[in-house]
Amino acid sequence: MRPFAYARPKNVRDATDIVTPMGVAGQGGAWLAGGTTLIDLMKLDVLRPEQLTDIQALGMDEIETDGETVRLGARVTMAQAAEHPAFKEGAPVLSQALWKAASPQLRNVATLGGNLLQRTRCPYFRDVSKACNKREPGSGCDAVGGYNRLLAVLGTSENCIANYPGDWANAAILFDAVVETRRGRRGRAIELGKLHRLPGDAPARETVLEDDELITAIELTVPSWARRSYYLKVRDRESYAFANTGAAVALDMDGDSVREARIGLSGVATTPWRAREAEAFLRGKALSEETAMQAGAIAFEGARGWGHNDFKIPLGQRTVARALLETARLS
Ligand code: SF4
Questions:
Q1: Ligand 1 centre from 121 Cα, in Å?
Q2: What mean pLDDT is predicted for residues 260-270?
């Protein structure tokens, strides 16, 4: 690992004053919270920050509830959030998406702010001897035409087919999540659905955040009917593995009929992904095996396989259908 400078400010204002922006090439400064992605990538020489600003003394670790609103500090850990009754009982999909990610050790230190921003597991991104437009803009993409079994089928471009590896963002996106940030003395709120950018012709720019902008909190609106929600994750082994496909589902039912459906997809897209056309298709319909399969097909309209990952399209369609049917069975 390369040498770096280290600072541990005591409040958010000091932190946002002293941080040095990290450029797309992985140099400059970086925020250090749980460090579960950052330190790995520094050891691999993929990221080479010259300064780390440790935010562990900044608080931002409370969970507050007010009616349907849940506000989480950015340093709340995955384990803390997964155990909170607002999720565990009020919206199981938000708890399950956390429990089905990583390992207990990682969930105890990884923060929600970092979780939203976790980097792709594309093997070519993590290998500095390979061409990768995300790591080194303009160098090419060895995954297109290479071994791309784990990579994305939705939201891709010829320049990058890396999948977004997270689970929780695909559940949080169902509940109008808003990300609060600070940059210098100014703050702003960004809809979670607008935080990440499609790769297009600039895959190194993964979010709309400025290089020195700090996520401070995440706020969600969790309706009472979100008790009927479920996270299905399909992977090569049952624990400590990333999703091949996944579906986060919440249903508001009127008997057998769907009043409202919300569907997020994991393991298949370049950003957190909400299947809004499939949701619209289901509204007012009786949920049956047939309509669930139709919704799955609609969720993957426009998907493109890149060879090794072609299987994700039919598997993803069936994952959505099964998640819908399992969710409908919940009371
Ligand atoms: Fe890099 Fe994206 Fe290509 Fe992977 S898919 S090698 S992350 S440009």
A1: 9
A2: 98
* Three-state DSSP state, 182: strand
Could you tell which of 120, 196, 197 is best to mutate to test the pocket of ligand 1, judged by most ligand atoms within 8 Å of the CB?
120
Separation CA 164–CA 179 (nearest Å):
17
The closest alpha carbon to 120, from 61, 240, 186, 203, belongs to 203
Nearest atom in ligand 1 to 141's CA: 3
For ligand 1, is residue 141 a contact (CB within 6 Å)?
yes
Strands, E, within the chain: which ranges? Answer: 5-7, 29-32, 51-54, 63-66, 69-73, 178-183, 186-191, 214-221, 229-234, 245-254, 257-266, 273-274
3-state class (DSSP) for residue 97: helix
Query: What CA–CA distance (Å, rounded) separates 318 from 244?
Result: 12
- Structure tokens, 67: 């009616």
pLDDT (0 to 100) of residue 13: 76
Task: Using the mean position of ligand 1's atoms as its centre, give its distance from the Cα of residue 139 in Å.
Answer: 10
pTM listed for this prediction = 0.95
pLDDT at 22 over 90: no
State the average pLDDT over residues 9-14.
Answer: 82
| Torsion sign, CA atoms 156, 161, 162, 168 | positive
CB neighbours (10 Å) of residue 129?
6
Mutation to probe ligand 1, out of 135, 141, 150, 268 (largest number of atoms < 8 A from CB) = 141
CA distances 22 to 50, 53, 128, 170, 195, Å, are 9, 11, 18, 26, 17
Q: Could you tell me whether strands 214-221 and 178-183 are parallel, antiparallel, or unpaired per DSSP bridges?
A: antiparallel
Q: What single DSSP character describes residue 28?
A: B
Domains, in order of start, for the chain: 5-54 (3.30.43), 225-328 (3.30.390.50)
Q: Is the pLDDT of residue 272 over 80?
A: yes
CA of 321 to the centre of ligand 1 (A): 30
